[in-house]
């Protein structure tokens, strides 16, 4: 048990990282677009996520009230850029890999605290560590790619039914990207800590 304190930190950091990965995937504000035509987009701001695009409009509602309109991206929409499709797939993979890593880590810690210490525990931590690292890398790719698109003010050719311009006046990073960056750091740290586990038997062998 005394040799597994770092692995407890692995579980804690991995849990927070996995939660933040899931939150990042669900948020709509990956990119914040500022537009000059406020006829439909009343606030002049639209949020572009990896599943949908949303904006506030005062149309079709009583004066003084606002309503959020969202258009969901459909599968294989030709106008959706590659970095958004990549984010959809990779973040789903990251979520499942992170969940598998947490499950394996819990099982390994359970064995340690129940006194079932053998060489297979090292293998569990190794597998869990690799899953954490792969999960972190799956988050890193779309986060970096979309951050690049924002900094270069890249456009998206939305269809007319979306009431969105193809290019914003300017755009900035939304909350989902920094949350994703934190998730990457935590998941990679979790994987590193998990891979560093040395069983007491292995430790004694090295000391001899």
Question: How does this structure look, described?
Answer:
This protein has 208 residues and is an alpha+beta fold. 55% of the residues lie in helices and 12% in strands. The protein is built from 5 helices and 5 strands; from the N terminus they run αββββααβαα. A hairpin with a 3-residue loop joins β2 and β3. The two termini are 21 Å apart. The C terminus is likely disordered. One of its GO terms (molecular function) is structural molecule activity.
TL;DR?
This is CLD34 protein. The protein has helices at 5-26, 82-113, 119-151, 176-195, 200-207, and strands spanning 31-34, 45-48, 52-57, 67-72, 170-173. It has a five-stranded antiparallel beta sheet with strand order 4-3-2-1-5.
CATH C-level: Mainly Alpha
Q: Largest sheet, order of strands side by side? A: 4-3-2-1-5
The chain-level mean pLDDT equals: 85
- Rounded Rg: 22 Å
Distance between the amino and carboxyl termini: 21 Å
Strand content of the residues, in percent?
5-15%
Say what oligomer this is. single chain
Shape: elongated
Please estimate the helix content: 55-70%
**Structural domain tally:** 1
CATH topology: Butyryl-CoA Dehydrogenase, subunit A, domain 3
CATH architecture: Up-down Bundle
How would you classify the helix and strand content by structural class? alpha+beta
Which blocks of ≥5 consecutive residues have pLDDT under 50? Answer: 201-208
Instruction: Write the H/E string, N to C.
Output: HEEEEHHEHH
Task: Tell me the number of strands.
Answer: 5
| Distinct helical segment count | 5
Largest sheet: 5 strands, antiparallel
GO molecular function, one term: structural molecule activity
Subcellular location: Cell junction, Tight junction; Cell membrane
Membrane topology: Multi-pass membrane protein
Pfam families: Claudin_2 (PF13903)
